[in-house]
Amino acid sequence: MVTKTEGTQLDDLENQVDNGGGGAWEYLCLVRKLKVRRSEKVLKHGLALLNDPKKRSSLGHDEWTLYEQVAVAAMDCQSLDVAKDCVKALRKQFPESKRVGKLEGLLLEAKGSWAEAEKVYSSFLEENPFDQVVHKRRIAVAKATGNMSTTIELLSKYLDTFMADHDAWRELAEIYISLQMYKQAAFCYEELLLSQPTNALYHLAYADVLYTIGGLEILQSARKYYSSTISLTGGKNRRALFGLCLCSSAIAQLSKGRNKEDKDGLELQSLAAEALQKDYKERAPEKLPLLTAALKSLKVSS
Amino acid sequence: MGNGDDQPRYEISQVAYIKLVLHALKHRTSAVNGVLLGRPSSSDGSLTEISDAVPLFHSNLGLLPNLEISLILIEEHYGGKGLSVVGYFHANERYDDSELSGVARNIGDHIYRDFPNAPILLLDNKKFEALEKGKDRSPVMQLYTRNASKNWKLSPDGGSRLILKEPSANVVLMDYISSEKWRDIVDFDDHLDDISKDWVNPDLFK
Predict the structure, then answer these.
(1) What is the ipTM of this complex?
(2) Three-state secondary-structure class, residue B36
């Protein structure tokens, strides 16, 4: 996950390089550091660097890191010839390397040779059953071939061993959501919340899943997590503010006649509504009337 | 003719069509969805005119809160123009996945409740890919409609129940693709992250 500052920094650098202002190597390093997926740009600018013999030799040892980065970007853009050339160059330089072997597996995936890729990865895992990257590639193969039950099985087993891999928990949660298995998705977010209790995005994701499951008690729980998201983000997270309004509305509908709940809910809802209106007034004033009408429709009259 | 005269038919405007496909292109590694705006034709009882579309999300399509908020705001905006939500668009994450997922069906059901002729349009990846080579004038989408037993059924090709209003829409689409117009499209996810981004996309085709 990338912060807003980091994102802006990356975009600015990208614009600079795109417009001939130089800084290609800095850009590529930043992409690697932030682990973002900008394959078209990486391919374009990385390849330009590689094809310029002076610039390439000035990189020294980093030349090989660049080959690797361009290879992966090329595969993502389906420029398989470029990818093949890069991997070949790497194999020539590092004949015994397992890291290059993994790239060769990745190339098989890019070609759609799933069975062969699977073989490569299985043999890697026989030698080293704790290679997380290869485990995840196997899971990726299952997902890419649409085999969702195998994907879930492999990913769950992976998480039994590598339970600190947050990205994997998030991936599993998202897969469950796409299959409408919301209770299982909730479990994944619970794990994430246990290990990172102050990460606002996990509070938000959990609240969203709970709201989707529905039911009075679960909605009340969702409301708690929207509230915690709001307090963790200083009231700036719009999705949580909207979520709170929706929750309060749904709870009010389900608990008509229980006055105590309504009072708490109403107060929270009007605070959230106020915050949203202020936000829209400042940044999207032409949409303010729409928002006001929407918020009005969410207020359930008791 | 064998078409069945009271079979619902749909005519989709270039604006709506291109917005939806560009949205799918912008987020080609995820599933995306959108809603169709329009109204029943005043002259032809079995025809629905789809005049606009709003791209919705490119992540976690199966979650309710953002969907509910987006529908409230969209209905509010377009209601003032005499248009309502008349259908749903979905594009799957994987190239060779041509199934209509549970999420798509459920959202379709929800829209169907308020507009009982609502179709689901599913991006047809293979047809889309072939567009570069051929001169196909039909939309690169599969049409699903609900039958009497409340199941979403694929309308067979050649039934021409889904047509492009402007016959050159695909030509225009290919043009926009080569100029990378898809970078400019804004969806509801983008709006929720930055409310100054407008999901109406008013300046997209200017």
Answers:
(1) 0.94
(2) strand
